[in-house]
Structures are given as structure tokens and as C-alpha cells.
Amino acid sequence: MGIKLTDRMKAWVETGCHLCVATKNGSPFVTLARNIKSISDDEVVFALSKDEYSVIKSALEENPWVAFGVSRIGGVRACYQFKGKGSATTEGDTVALKVKLSELYCTKPGCYAGLRLDTKSFKELEKWDSDLWKDLPKK
Question: Region 103-130: what's the mean pLDDT?
């Protein structure tokens, strides 16, 4: 399955995320990503400093699966967990971590908790997203 991010999701993701990877044995590693850009409807790129990347590098080399969620107030206003395969390339002093998204879950507490959203058509996802939330992040 694949996903297509709504414009609202893209806007929230670009405010900053907790980026999570795990070793094949399941040991988790988390870093903060502040510079994120949606490059297509199902791909995002995290521009990480070498220090930020060093936290997840060994786990990512072992296991390419990446999960991330929106940081700060976005964790409440954009209750999503995004998952996909990541690949990193060094560009000067930064590391570009490109993630091709394939799974999307709702992390809103209550009846929506854990709901798998990548099973919805884009039109259904857009309606579901706009029925629950109207706000966009402040720039």
C-alpha cells in the first residue's frame, strides 16, 4: 500500500518531527528533525545535521524502516504516525534522509487511536482529515 499526504499533513510535517528508527532487534533510536520538506505526495526529506544523524545512523544502516510523528503542538493537532523506508545521502554538512511513505496511522486518543489510514482512498483520507481538524500550523 502507498499513501498520499494531504496538504494539511504536509504543512504539519514541515514544522518538525520526532524521527524514529530501530535496530533489527527492536532497539529504538530517536532524533529531532527540524528541517523537513515534502518532495512529493508520498515522500519527505529530512535535512539533518551530522550530529542529529549520528543518533540514528547505525540503526538505519541495519534497518531502513523509519517512523515519524509531528513534534510540539503538532503532536496534538496532527495526530499521525508516518512510516516508510529511508535512505540517506550526505550533502556537505548535512545528511538528507529521504523517506518513501507506505503506512499511515492515527495517534489521536480515543476511538481513532491506532486507526490505519493508508487503507483509505485519498478522497476519503482528505475528508476524514478535514472533518476532524480545520487548523494549519502557524508560520
Answer: 91
